[in-house]
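EI: anyone free to look at a 155-residue chain?
SC: sure, send it
EI:
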Amino acid sequence: SLSRRPGRRRRRARLPPMAFRTPLHVRWGDLDPAGIVYYPRFMHFCHVAMEEFFRDAIGIDYPKLLREHRIGFPVVHLETEYHRPLRYGDETEIEVSIPRVGGSSVSWRYRFLHRDIERPAAESRIVTVCVAMDSFQKTAVPEWLADLFRSPIAR
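SC: here you go
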């Protein structure tokens, strides 16, 4: 039997957090002349996935958030790692998770998954800041929304 050193606690196995997933169908207009998804399209896909996340996981349409709650989440930082190309007709999923909610910022993680392939085609990390739509000034993430961002489906 294995023994532990005195004073050391056993580490708990960390289960991967649940995340929201939405389908992505690669269309002809997403391609560059090489026949693969043109890299800026990944940013568009991330924004579409974010809107789907608001609607299906949070329960509020992003346009409604802008119009009625008068807040938005523009991007202030992004980085993407590309591991393999996506091609016309590929049916993939975008996995959306929120690893961190700050006072006025939200960190998003997007993974472009293809069935039967373990490694994602691409991974994006994006930081958005909550702004008041009337002034476009930074504001605190409302507590009701921060709580929803911290729910299991968002993590």
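EI: The mean pLDDT is 89.
SC: 👍
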